[in-house]
Amino acid sequence: MKYEILHDLSIPKLGFGTWKIGGGSYADLKLDSVSLAAIKSALEVGYTHFDTAEMYGGGHTEKLLGQAIRESRADRSKLFITSKVMPSHLKYDDVLKACENSLRRLKMEYIDLYLIHWPQAGLKLEETFRGLNKLIRDGKVRHLGVSNFNLRLLKESQALSETPLITNQVPYSLSDRSYVNNGVLGYCQQNDILLTAYEPVDKGRLNVNRTLQSIADAHNATPYQIALTWLISQPRVITIPMSYNPQHIRENFESVDIELTKEELEALN
After folding, report:
1. Which pLDDT belongs to residue 136?
2. Quick one: which of 48, 51, 114, 125 could link to 141 by a disulfide (CB 3.0–4.6 Å)?
3. What is the domain range of residue 54?
4. What is the mean pLDDT of residues 29-37?
């Protein structure tokens, strides 16, 4: 595994996302067995960073993640767990309650990285960060970040956070460069903030053109692996692909070991 070192914190370049694990916006109990199997497969392969949110599965995803970790007897101290507070819970008291509920569902004493999931219209960031900063002081959360924030909101969040912001989690892939074009990626790279790329292979619908396929063939890899490798080859970029398929879970993990040439990176860029 490769890592980003940030403020004495070591974060894997590739983690395991959990959107759709245990359901979409609502719990789907019929998915429990396959969801638990997917998380356990990721743990077995070697993933240590798991990304979740109170919004996923209506909170059920957090329950399944904690259950899978306990049943796998994984060492919590060696894991990096990210969760997120939903837009309707951004008032001071709601932030504190949302975190307590996430901890209860995870059955954990702390969350490594806690994000504002989405900005909300009329968002009063001062009030939200008053709650987030208290969670840090109380030891419930170790690091803070945001998700889906534009450059203005990211800078405002930096000013309000009592500790360094760790990440802005946004959609980023070979086909989606919107957060490159709006200046967020460049700003993150210049200011020691990780850009966590979600939907890194376009929800499994990656457009495989001739260039991508030829680079994949040259490395005896899949185009999906090359798409992930392209992301994590960039400074201050990490990514969190998700899959139920044990083979894809392993292939995603192994994409970290692929080394692209300068010419290949330029072609993909």
Report:
1. 98
2. 114
3. 11-196
4. 98
Domain assignment of residue 211, yes or no: no
Helix (H, G, I), strand (E, B) or coil at 3: strand
Residue with tokens 């240590």: 48
Is position 160 within any domain? yes
Q: Could you tell me how many residues make up the chain?
A: 269
Compute the half-sphere exposure of residue 181: CA atoms within 13 Å on the CB side of its CA.
8
Could you give the number of structural domains in the chain? Answer: 1
Residue 265 maps to a domain:
no
Average pLDDT, the chain: 97
Contacts of 221 by beta carbon, 8 Å cutoff, 6+ apart: 229, 255, 258
Among this protein's residues, is 110 annotated catalytic? no
pLDDT in tens, 49-64: 999 999 999 999 999 9
Output the domain CATH number for residue 165.
3.20.20.100
Instruction: Give the integer Cα–Cα distance in Å for 7 and 189.
Output: 14
Residues 6+ positions from 198 with CB-CB distance below 8 Å: 17, 19, 51, 169, 170, 171, 172, 239, 240
Q: Which residues of 52-70 are buried (b: 16+ CB within 10 A; e: fewer)?
A: bbbbbbebbbbbbbbbbbe
Q: Is residue 217 part of a domain?
A: no
What pLDDT score was predicted for residue 152? 96
Q: Which of 56, 114, 172, 224 is catalytic?
A: 56
Cα separation, 213 vs 127, in Å, equals 48
Measured distance CA(130)–CA(253) in Å, rounded = 37
The whole-model pTM stands at 0.97
Q: Tokens 């504190």, residue?
A: 96
**Do the Cβ atoms of 153 and 129 come closer than 8 Å?**
no
